[in-house]
Amino acid sequence: MKHFFLGTVSAATLALSALSAQAADTTLRISLQLPLKSHLGQNLVLFKDEVEAASNGDIAVEIYDSAQLYKDNEVPQAVGSGSIEMGVASLTRYVGDAPIVDIFYQPFLLDSEEKVRKAVAPGSPVRGPIDAAIAETGSTVLWWQAYGGAIMLSNGGPIKTPEDLKGKKVRVFSKTLGDFVEAAGGAPTVISGSEQYLAYQRGTVDVGMTGVSGVQSRSLWEVMDTITVTNNADIEFIVVVNTDFWNGLPEEHREIIMAAAKKAEDTVRDEMSNIEANAYAASVENGMTIYTPTPEEMAAWKQVAQPVYDIFVEKTGETGKAMLEAAQGF
What we know:
Layout: H1 11-23, E1 26-31, H2 39-54, E2 59-64, H3 75-81, E3 86-90, H4 113-120, H5 127-135, E4 139-154, H6 162-165, E5 169-172, H7 175-183, E6 187-190, H8 196-202, E7 207-211, H9 212-217, E8 226-228, E9 234-242, H10 243-247, H11 251-285, E10 289-291, H12 295-303, H13 306-328
Parallel strand pairs: 1-2, 1-3, 5-6, 5-7, 8-10
Antiparallel strand pairs: 3-9, 4-7, 4-8, 4-9
Helix pairs in contact: 2-11, 7-13
């Protein structure tokens, strides 16, 4: 029995994937907003290769990158409803259903690799409640994809302190990051990752917030000239599968997929520091200036952050409070 959902894709795309899909018992289509050359795209390629090899072609994996099918903010509904089998979304795209996901965007909370690894460990007091909450949306989390620390992008000089952010329009990708920008005196605008290049190019915003790997994969050095290394949040993406589809798969197929998912998760986590280092180097090679705030400047950033924590606890109640306390203890 074949397991797949039909969606609207181009004839050319269908033709390219027809051979592998026809030969397979199970077809997994994955929506990705980033280019395939990005490290998240390459992580999906690793997953695809592992699954197809281990299943001897019984499972076909098709990757639709660069938001061909769905934008980042459309993935939770598309996967949860079964319009597509799998998708990659920024964790914060689930904040409407599960406000606790924005624990990862609390300013400077998870500001080291050691803390992040403790937070994202399966079943941890931080990740556990999030995976459970996302399960309520009709999707099952297969693996988490590391994306690194948040940075700020600007033109004409760095954003050294909150004073430099005052009155500036800032691209953010979560409400909590927006709360942080507002606390620092800026004006946040939520813009999808796939649309930020044009936002910078057109001057829709003055400052950007993203991960440095995104600067490289999206060639953002063409529209911004300075990176300020604030590391004010940990950016995580998740790969989800429609739960009804997942439960309908043969057990042996689920085992193959889970083994590949674990390898993909471990690989991207272990490679993240090198990925960021290479992205910083590429940014410099393409004319960008990298600025690291001084301890005094970082203290000024952290000083304006407290209201963001208060808002998080107010929105998430006892569950969020317990998660915050656990993260502060890492």
